[in-house]
Amino acid sequence: MAIYREKDAFERRNAANDAKKALLEKYKARPAADDPAVLARQAERKAILEARAIREAEKEKLRQERLAREAVEKAEREAKAEAERLAAEEAAQAEAKAREAEEGDRIARLLADEAERKAKRDARYAARKARGKRMPPSANYG
After folding, report:
1. Which of 22, 54, 95, 129 has a Cα-to-Cα distance from 70 of 20 to 30 A?
2. How many CA atoms lie within 13 A of 93 on its CB side?
3. Model pLDDT, residue 76
4. Per-residue confidence band for 136, with pLDDT thresholds at 50, 70 and 90
5. Longest CA span, the chain
6. How far apart are CA 72 and CA 78, in angstroms?
């Protein structure tokens, strides 16, 4: 069984220096900007970006068409609702006018009936006045 041994400061410093050297070597080993592999990767990224831009433009175009279509549908619905509201108002006004006319006819009939009753009553009163004062039959006996 291995015994665990803690690293001292020198070993830690040497390990850090080795790691820094490895990073520097990796950076220096990186291909140059004019390397064909780098240029190919850049061209591929550019093609991907252009395809993405085209897809986004297509999505935006479809979204704008959908919004325009929804706006037209909304305007049609609002126009239909407004027309229905106006028709309902006109029907209500016509009904109110009919009710008013019916009420006016009823009042006219009541007034005409009242005038006719008054005319009959006046005629009876005038006839009674025209006959003069007669003595009731029981008054002759007394």
Report:
1. 54
2. 6
3. 97
4. low
5. 164
6. 10
